[in-house]
Amino acid sequence: MAFSVGCIGAGYFAAFHYDAWSRMKGATAVAAVDQDLAKAEATGLRAFSDAEEMLQAVKPDIVDIITPPTTHHATIQLALKHKPKVVICQKPFCLDIAQAREATEMAERAGVPLIVHENFRFQPWYRVIKAAIAEGKIGTLQQMSFRMRPGDGQGPEAYLSRQPYFQKMPKFLVRETGVHWIDTFLYLAGTPKRVFADLRQMNPAIAGEDAGTLIFDHGDGVRSMLDGNRLLDHAATNTRCTMGEGHFEGTGGTLTLFGDGSVRHRKFGDLETTEILPATDDKGFAGDSVYNLQRHVVDALNGERAFENMARDYLKVIEIETAIYQSAAEGRWIEV
Questions:
Q1: How much is the pTM?
Q2: Which residue, of 137, 208, 294, 329, has the fewest CB within 10 Å?
Q3: Which domain holds residue 162?
């Protein structure tokens, strides 16, 4: 079955969505909305400056919301009135946990699946790492760590050329970027039981935190850690591909993720490593994860798999994010 797609938003990151839809078998983007009509027109699709007008005129099967969090609640509510087959909404999902819960409940009452566009778990390296852990390649998982080093946060011009609103976000490192690894660690090791966070602001040109260390206790001795600093970089041609480097360690070995998207496996006690995923060809965004998520939604609509990233499930990610900021403010472990 072929589905029509109506996209709301045509800013910087939306370009990855439009590119992915243009390559999607079984779904076709037919309309774009942006308050700046010229941006919508630049997509080459039927252009609108008003979302309601687009929804009434096009009646898309899939509504893809690619707008800032301040607009999510109202835009989801508007989309649900027109009864699409599914609504996808970019992260960060809504303004806070209360809005996110309301949006989730609205979608459930309407009987329309609401999917959060959290694409990092759809990056090929995390799919391979998940499978390798399940296959027992590293024995019993004990620890995961990721060093986030995009190197794009130095000086007064930080973020201005790409996403200038980053500078004004009062909550930045965790809410905008670290949330990717909250969901990824949850995907790989299950929901943590408690969290501890040490957050700090390094660049005075921005409003929020841009560095910090987050520790997740998944129970049974399993820990994961995000060590993030947006001012520092790592060895990669494209530092935004993986945004850093990771280690996933168990009683029987280690999986290492490199900045080029490759994953290598080392058995416990060995010196040699084996490549289990080659470097990415850098198509699309970060291993083509936007395409992978959208492909997943289309496949789920066709009954080929169950939906991931349903809003109800994603509420747990926002609850963990809330606990992280509480931990940083109070300097203690917070139960999730």
A1: 0.93
A2: 329
A3: 121-286+314-335
